[in-house]
Amino acid sequence: MIQLNNIRKTYRTRHDTLEVLRGITLTIPERSLVMLLGESGSGKSTLCNILGLLDTPTSGEYLWNGTAVHTLSPAERTKLRRNHVGFIFQSFNLIPTMTAFENIELPLGYRKYPKADRTFLAENALKSVGLYDRAKHLPSELSGGEQQRIAIARALVMNPALLIADEPTGNLDKNTAGEIMSLLTEASREKTVFMVTHNEELTSYAGLVIRMHHGEITAEF
After folding, report:
1. How do residues 175-185 score in pLDDT, each as one tens digit?
2. d(CA 137, CA 212)
3. Which of 17, 43, 89, 192 has minimal CB crowding within 10 Å?
4. Cα–Cα distance between 218 and 67 in angstroms, integer?
5. How far is CA 74 from the centre of its chain?
6. 92-114 pLDDT, tens per residue?
7. Which CATH number is associated with domain 2-220?
């Protein structure tokens, strides 16, 4: 379980300070699909960066299964992120010169998994998103929906406890978006999926919906 208590984030500019998050208090249950909605500039990306340990709050408490994340050193936060957080992006962020299989295998190599283990895990990840037959294809040879499924497989191959998805259906048509949401819903049976979206129609998939406005949570349902 993730708990945020009075999280604030302030950025300093040359002439002023900008408070992006204004006292966020939130509980995110384990093994759930949580959706975050809000207009541009509401603080959604900043909140995701803090949840994903890419940024730190100016003040407040971040508790992850009892661990006080806000007190960890930069090295400790990096280790926690590498071991337990996965990311999915609207733009897929696949390496264009690598095949689908190689894109999925890449993070396993960073973690120094033996070659046999990397192959086994990457092949299983491809099967889990229904693209085993596309293993040797480059991203340019895949549809947008297929590229996003490969990006999901790459995120899932490390078995993260927290999966952060930033507008993962934003570039996809309605039918393909439904396929992606089915994959994320299935993933949420075993891990926490925290998803940013502008699409109100997708909230039916969520166990918890959060609305933000000007750096504050305005509704939870």
Report:
1. 999 999 999 99
2. 39
3. 17
4. 27
5. 20
6. 999 999 999 999 999 999 889 99
7. 3.40.50.300
DSSP 133-182: GGTT--GGGS-HHHHHHHHHHHHHTT--SEEEEESTTTTS-HHHHHHHHH
> 118 phi and psi, to 5 degrees?
-60, -45
213-to-28, 39, 41, 126 alpha-carbon distances in Å: 19, 7, 8, 38
pLDDT in tens, 50-107: 999 999 999 999 999 999 999 999 999 999 999 999 999 889 999 999 999 999 999 9
Could you tell me the residue ranges of all domains in the chain?
2-220
Residue 178 in tokens:
């439904």
Pair of tokens at residue 60 = 């407040």
pTM of the full structure: 0.92
Count other Cβ atoms within 10 Å, centred on residue 50. Answer: 24
